[in-house]
Amino acid sequence: MTISRRSLLRLAAGGSAAAALSQLTLASAMADTSTYRAMVGVFLFGGNDAWNMVVPTDGRYATYASQRGSGIALQQSSLVPLTGTPFGLHPSFDTLKPAWDEGALGVVLNAGTLFQPLTKSLYTSRPDLRPLNLLSHDDQQNQWQGGRMRATNVDGFMGRMNDRAEKANLPPLISIAGSHLALIGDRTAPLVLPSSGAISRYGYNAASTDPATKARQAALDVFADGSSYGAVTDLTGKGISSAYAQAVAANTVVSATTSVVDKFFVNPTTGVALTSEISRQLLRAARMIEARASLGHAKQTFFVSQGGYDTHVGQLGSHINLYRDLSMALAGFYNAMKALGLGNNVTAFTMSDFGRVFKGNTQAGTDHAWGSNHLVLGAALAKGKIHGRYPDMSFGGPEDSANDGRWIPSIATEEYLGAIAQWYGVSAADLPYIFPNWSTWNGGGRGPVPMFG
After folding, report:
1. Domain that holds residue 95
2. Nearest-CA neighbor of 348 among 25, 43, 67?
3. Which pLDDT tens digit goes with each residue over 72-93?
4. How many structural domains is the chain composed of?
5. Is residue 50 exposed (0-12), middle (13-18) or buried (19+ Cβ within 10 Å)?
6. What H or E segment, with its residue span, contains residue 316?
7. CA-based R_g, the chain, Å
8. What Å distances lie between residue 429 and 184, 276, 343, 433, CA to CA?
9. Is residue 448 in a domain?
10. CB atoms within 10 A of CB 3
11. What is the pTM of this model?
12. pLDDT tens digits, residue range 305-342?
């Protein structure tokens, strides 16, 4: 991936107390939180085999089991039924069953990166219409996050959304998963928080008596007021001061000893606090949402992630733990939002590099493929809906880009993410800026998935 120097500096600024260094000249604005909304992107790094996350339970199950093979296919009796539909979830998602029953969980089938709508015939005859470098982790992650399928991605859809958002002292675009392409905007930068602990100034100790430390800290204090040293020094000094102030504001939230949301991030069976990385990230997002008014945020956008989905070997065992951690973290997050009275105001959604080959490999794993299924969580969703179409499971058939079940997506990332952006409040005029290929997917019978209602 090619990243400009400007973008690299933005990301570098995000990873420390200088998280908002590039927010140098943004004005303060106390936001109106009466129409508050938040979107929470959950990126599953490695390529999630969501064909075992969402499984048909009707007559198609026999074909599913035969085509996947005994080393990959789940037992039908183990699936968590999605009442009212012919589908079930992986058994580790049992903690999300209440959300489905309440109408707050949705499923989007066979979504993925597309440059334009593709049939099997077009895929075979027109390689120039395919997304670049299919099956590549880096390239497909960048295309999901950046939205350009046949060009270099240097910024991301969340960053571009933040470019058009109302500005606040503390950026409303917040990552708790490190620095990623999705977060880069043209004029704005995210706040990047650690998943545990507070933000600290490297090498800073106000109580230190060490002469070298005291001298360095004194120099930084002088530099922070650089008005007498020229415009560049003054601007940079103000940026550093602003970044430190933002770190203090964020620390007030993440280090608070009491919070309404903490008690929901527990194992529902044992009551023990959740400690997985994805649960820590979502808990931190929940705390920032809890503090939305004091932070002056009318809207917030979050990026969190979970790794480990490159399951070439022993997938069944890997998925048990990955999905259990993800399910309990999402359930805790959803229950926390309900406790805050924000069930209808917050939507979480999954993304991943790509789906995986339907046919298992010889190591009881699966290899890189293309289309995949995704979960959306929030009380604003249309209730009890499965969106899209499960593919024809014929190997080498009309939806297989190879001969082993590498399904051509039937829903584009723009149709999936664009629906969430519209619900979030992105204007029709801004959608082409946020999704560079929007015109391809908004007209002619295509458009945002009708997830909300």
Report:
1. 5-441
2. 43
3. 999 999 999 999 999 999 999 9
4. 1
5. buried
6. helix 315-339
7. 23
8. 20, 40, 28, 8
9. no
10. 17
11. 0.90
12. 999 999 999 999 999 999 999 999 999 999 999 999 99
